[in-house]
Amino acid sequence: MARLADYFVVVGYDLDKRGGSEGQGHILQRFPEKDWEDNPFPQGIELFCQPNGWQLVPERERPSFFVSVLTDINSERHYCACFTFWEGLDNPQLQKAEASEVDEDEVPGLVQPTQVFAPKSLVLVSRLDHTEVFRNCLGLIYAVHVDSLSVPLETVIGNLLTCVIPVAGGSQINESPVCSLNLSVPQALACDWLLGCFQDQPCQEEREESLRTITLGAGDRQVIQTPINDSLPVSGSSVAHLFRQLGIVNVLYLFCAALTEHKILFLSSSYQRLTDACRALLAIMFPLKYSFTYVPILPGKLLEVLSTPTPFIIGVNSFFRSETQELVGSMTLDVIIADLDGGTVTIPECVHISLLPDPLLQQTQTALSMVLDPELEIADHAFPPSSTQPSTLKIQDKEIRAVFLWLFGQLFHGYRWCLHIIRIHPEPVIRFHKAAFLGQRALTEDDFLMKVLDGMAFAGFISERGPPYRPTDLFDDLIANQVERIRQEECSPHKVMNHIKELAEQLFKNENPYPAVAMHKVQRPAESPGHNDPKNLAIFPPLDDVTVQLFIDHAAAKLQTAPPVVKAELKGMVPSGPPLGDIVDRHGHVLANSARRLEVVRNCITYIFDNKMLEAKKLMPAVLRALKGWAARVCLTQELNQHVLQNRAVLDDQQFDYIVRMMNCTLQDCSHMDEHGIAAILLPLVTAFCRKLGAGITQFAYSCVQEHMVWTNMQFWEAMFYSDVQNHIRALYLEADGGEQSTSSRGQQESGPAAGGQELLGALELASEQSRLWPTLSKEQQSERVQKEESTVFSQAIHYANRMSYLLLPLDTSKNRLLNRSGIGDVESVSNSYVTNSIAGSMAESYDTESGFEDAESSDVANSVVRFINRFVDKVCNESGVTNEHLKALHTMIPDIVQMHIETLDAVHRESKRLPPIQKPKLLRPILLAGEELVMDGMRVHLISDGREEATGALGGPPLLPAEGAIFLTTYRLIFKGTPNDPLVGEQVVTRSFPIASLTKEKRISVSLSMDQFIQEGLQLRSCTFQLLKIAFDEEVASDLAEVFRKHMHKLRYPQHVQGTFAFTVGQSGKTLVEHKTKDKNQSIKTLSKNLVKSAKRTIGRQHVTRKKYSPPTWENRSSLQSELDEDELSVSEELDQGSLTLSSTIRSSDRQTMSNVVERACCRDYQRLGLGTLSNSLTRSKNEPFRISTVNRMYTVCRSYPGLLIVPQSIPDSTIQRISRCYRQNRFPVVCWRNSRTKAVLLRSAGLHAKGVVGFFKSPNAPSAGPSQADSTSLEQEKYMQAIISSMPSYCEPSGRNTLGGFTSTHMSTSDSSDKLRQPKIGALMKQVMGGKEDVPGTFSRGALGQRARVISLSQPRVSGKARNPPGGKWGSIRGSGRLSAYNPEVGNRLSSKESPQPNGGPSEALFLKQQRAYLYIIGDKTQLKGGKQDSFQQWEVVPIEVCDVRQVKNSFKKLIKACVPSSATSEPSMTFHRCLEESEWMCLLHRVLQVSVLVVELLDTGSSVMVSLEDGWDVTTQVVSLVQLLSDPYYRTFDGFRLLVEKEWLSFGHRFSHRGAQTLASQSSGFTPVFLQFLDCVHQIHLQFPMEFEFSQYYLKFLAYHYVSNRFRTFLLDSDYERIELGVLYEEKGERKNPQVCKSVWDYIDRLNKKTPIFFNYMFSPEDEEVLRPYSFISNLKVWDFYTEETLSEGPSYDWELVQRGRQERLAEEVPDKPDTTTPKSQRRIVWPCYDSRSRVVPDAITKLLQDLQSLEAELGLPPEKWKDTWDKIKANQRTEAKLENRPSFNSSLLMSSNLSHQRRSQGVYLPESGVGSSINLAMDRETSTTSTPVAGRPSTSTLYSQFQSTESENRSFEGILFKKGALLKPWKPRWFVLDKTKHQLRYYETRQDKEFKGVIELAEVESVIPGTPSMGAPKNIEEKAFFDLKTTKRVYNFCAQDSPNAQLWMDSIQSCLSDA
User: Fold this and answer.
1) What's the CA dihedral at 1859, 1865, 1866, 1872 to 10 degrees?
2) Could you give the angle at the alpha carbon of 109 between the alpha carbons of 104 and 112, nearest 5°?
3) What is the pLDDT of residues 1483-1511, one digit of tens each?
4) What is residue 618's predicted lDDT score, i.e. its pLDDT?
5) Contacts (Cβ under 8 Å, ≥6 apart) of 887
6) Model-level pTM greater than 0.70?
7) Of 1535, 1399, 1459, which is closest to residue 1808 (Cα–Cα)?
8) Which residue, 842, 780, 1811, is CA-closest to 1359?
């Protein structure tokens, strides 16, 4: 029973305290004046009556009503119903104004009303929430007052305060109200009547009639619908309203936010709506109750409450919106704001709301939309039903609540199976096993449920609903009886709806038990016309408190005398509902292992206990795999249980080992929560299994399974403890009742919390029964039971203190092994246990000063364990009500238990060390290079397989990985050496290594090795030599050692300075080995690095020399260059850039040695070879030489990254160069780097222009306003520079003008026949390809024959004699006749040529060679740079804008390429296949682009135009293109010497930033690894594949360079420029300096040395053609992946450190030689070759290598001195040649005969067939069959004759050629011959005709003494001027020659002279 109203209060406006803008309210009267004992009067009501503040208003407002909710200190809610109306009073403003001056606030001219209205509130305070009843009662009081009814107000209020109604049960008490006042009683007799009615009692019939009604005696009558069950909330229609205002999704967000404890703020301009919304939110949370701050209406004065840190649900009037937002904004913005009027919910960014788990969320939304919008479902029906209106609001409200009830039924079903009852008497204490619940529901990952279960609301839910004996309600019924129904129906929305409607009906019935009774009769104030007239309205009168008090006292007295009403509370046992079924994962699939797997587990355990160890060993891997599954783990624990007798099972060593391994494997996959209860079942087993170590010393399994997180999780121990306590208490009562025998505790443990259904049910049933009997027991029995329970808990606490010490103390207690575990003592540990007192208190208590084991350093293991156990004991004992004495006893006991256990462990540890260790493979030592030293000795590791499947045996072959061995860190490399784990290949050795300098990425990983099942820390190390080491440290390696290893690796990978790299430190450092035992593990390394840093500092310091004027160096030819030098000196001193510092003292000005070194450098040798200039002063430079070697950069002041000597046009002075250089990035101005010996076109290189210079540089001088005056001087000088280059070209000097590109020499003109025209390659197509084939290249290619139609020219033109050969022609690569057309549109107009028809294979098409205007100089520039450059028809240069790949692209592409070629893990995803990844890396596209540009440049140079490559900074792409162009154009660069020279010149001297791009030092670490040089080598490799006969070096040579350019073994590729190399003194290392002959500092020396020993670098197919220009195909389809990226040799590691490989092979051979020759069995000569293990080139050598090897071994056998392989080879070649001549067949190189697989090579197919008359050029019909047969097919020449057309006998290098008449020997006539001057071979050869392949004779230039003008002699050609004759005098005779004219003769003489002088 409860009072309907506790207090009635009248609150009015306080006129006295009126200050400022806001007034105040005060309580005028309150009844009763004394507080009720059970319910004190709530404070601060006046604030809540007017939440917006007390204010006077000028007009009367309508009465208002709302209900506020106040919460008192005991968390009781008080409902304050406020009824406010407005009363008039004289305006206090006016009265004040009369007394004083006019107020400043007042606006003059505003008329103040004479009367204002003040609010007055009637407030009912109640603990019951009956909004409508309160509204009616207060309305009635107001009506009585306003309408001046004859009923005294005191009577009505007295009746109201004495109404007593039942809280629940649906009916009012069977008594009439205290008074039913008759309206006829006059006012005056009220008191007398009052006394009379106290004596009068109505008869029984009347009582029945007024059963559910109340009346306040004013002729009113109300029915109160008290709910049947008060545990269900009453919501009216508020939930339906909330959904209408906010919508489904928004409310669901709020719902989840409230459950997961977020802050929620409602805004509305209506107070009642705020209250309703808050009430609705609480209603849908049922059965959970909200336990945080709950203020549906917050007064404006209390807004700062919003800044509370705790969660809340608060409502605020929209009037305060801005203040609210300020407040919320100033906080951490974690408040969710729901605007009821606007229908929005605003969630701040920082707030993450966990939503319902997935299928549930969808189902809930569907159900809600079916309730709220039933028409949605049938909206698309063709024949919709006539009407589908949603239910009425009240019903809809219940339907929505039913949806949420159904939702909670699904979320919480089975929760009672996870309750632990740990005390029954005096009060039940219940704990919830969260981990088991989540595990059984397979929702351990679900964020929402985790948060809900950890929340306060759920804690309240458990403490309220946990007890097994209590009254039940709708939710209990749902969980107990309807879970099955929910499960079956959840997929059918209509069945769900029917269920929801049933639940809704029950909810509605509960709230409206008597729907039939609706007899409301409540007086409302009359709406008379003069009602609002202030004169008619009296002030609400003061009430007579005596009268009201009389009513109250009388009712109280009557209640005391009345017999007590006992409403039997229906308590009963709470049913648990169906147990949680099989484990279901989140997709609903039952997780069960196949029966076969469980069988394997059972068999293995049987074998172990039957001592069949061999069988068990075989099954072990399968068992460990099976144990990944949950069922198999449970099976394991059940099987092990059967082998335990009396809590003990003694095993032998091997059995123990296997059992422990299985336990570890089982525990490893359990999370720290142990949601499946596996650790719980294993806990008794690990203390049961043991082995005897010695006399009285036993080792238990627990000492070997401590490495798991679960043991350090406080929640796990609590759950275990409570579970055991429950079993014991249950046993206690079962014994007490005597009837049942308890099942053995082992049986319980076997089933665990997950499967222990029957036992668990028993415990709760038992508790329920005991609770029912409790009141019937005597005091003694009660106290006896309490004591027994308490003792049970205490004994379990002791037991657990022991168990915890077992699992927390490590075997070797001297180690701090367990200490750095995370997870011990997390705050989380308390979140699951619901403390009976304040939760916050227990939080603080558990989160004590020392959080678990974290403070390892300060104390030892024992203290940490003691503290951990103490915290556990405190917690569980407080919760389960253990007495203080017992708790103290425990605290004294725990240190003793731990100490005792430590002593036992010490003995065990001692004995266990004596056990023979498990045999591990012995660590193999790696072979080291001379000068290479170990930094860290071998650490035992496992090499794990990565994504390359060859080594794992996945593609067939033996599983070489995983392997066990050691990792060694040396000063040069990182080496793994070990043996495969697979016993079948255990005798093989696996080696994987890479240079430490090539490490690109290091990543920590954790690896589980299949057998040991330990998760081990590991490293994944990636190298840019396309290697990956994935290693896991063995357990014997301490983690700090692994860390030391990482630090050293980093130190070696990124030294402070380049001098710290291996190439510099090799052989210098002291002993740097890190011993594993030593204390300071990196002592020696420290000293080493200190020295390095010192020397580095010294070197770095030297660079910052103050600028000073340099005196020029004195060298021999100083006199001739003096003027230039002086000029230079001036310009250096005046125009020195701020950025460029002068060279340090490493070059002394007097040091001639240095400058002669510079002269000797690669560049100069090459310049001389190319005839670009010379520095020797023996020969005066002829004036007509167009270029000179400039020394302007000799001090590296003009450009730091250029070489000291540069080729520039003769006419440009050095001062100009200095000025020009500033226009270019990095000052890298254009310099000549190569000249075409035939066309004399030059190749220049430079960086891109600075942005500002571009437009000025390319501004058209013909623009109207532009003129020299406008352009600045540098721009003009640049133009001069360009002009000087153009002038240097012979074609420019031709008198016939610019259009004669074809005629570089008259001889060329005269012999150029139709074959030339046909062979002329088409540059237009190339241009279009390179520029992207766009038609709208802005104005760049405006000129040219655009109108011509493209024509296909067939080859059926006049037949050319088979011997005709065309010098400008080169070779187009073939791709074996794949008739692919070019991908580019041939129709695009182009300035450079006519329209063309594309040829197959992407080669340029054939068309008529039109003599067209071509620019003399093409500038290849970057598209982005050259915007705005305007072309002009008279300019002689032209810009070709191309898109280049920038270094970032190369870097990213390379990363992807590495991942494609060496993936870190195997994957079956189709998107991750090798080819897909390769494509995505775009590496091939980049190669294609570079090759394409290079081929274009080759074409341009070959047609006589010069080219300047001017891209980026001039040191990446520029270098690639320039080098490739030279390689393609000049056969010299395809030899060993030439290639070396090319790399030294273009890459090293011209300053490619090797150190920076290779990230070789600490400073460049951040820039990352960018393999620009590797890209170049890959391009060379592609060309090599297409032209295998053109290169002297093999593919291995390229791989060797690719490996060593990143290895830092040699100094060659260190540092970024010659300047830096001179700084460090490494540029010119004297030969005599070498202290250690073993250590090669230059990679070239090493290659030379090695090449003498072995033909490894030599290409046997080398058979070059003279003057051969290569034109490779660059389409991606023609490119191949370089096998350097994918191959590996696990038997010996990379083969690029040749000495190591050789020594390794010798060692292996020595091992393989048997002690005694086995004569019994014939030894097979065959052996298996494994692709990724063996070196195929060694095991299966090619024929020639094999023959050379055999020769060597025969020589050795015969005792002959070994001959060098090269000599042998040359001899054989010479023999072949002579034989070929003797047999008189068209001879070609012997290498051709010797190479077996020639038919597959490029040359044999890219052949034109002019003789065969086959037809057009499209038909390259060279069938594979034909080419492989040696017999010629009829009607077609044989392969060899075809070949000979394009193959000259001699390797030629034609420096100059043409027709001369030569006088024969005595009596012989003058004859015209074709002469060829060959600079390379130093010969002058002559041929019968130009097409001839074999020369008639040769004049060795070495024998020539002089070249002089001659005179015509007898028989000389007629009509030729005298000056055309000249003589050549040799040591043997004089030759007489006659040219066509005198200039031609002069040219010949000069050419021969320059050859002589160069020599």
Assistant:
1) -20
2) 75
3) 999 999 999 999 999 999 998 899 999 98
4) 77
5) 873, 874, 877
6) no
7) 1399
8) 1811
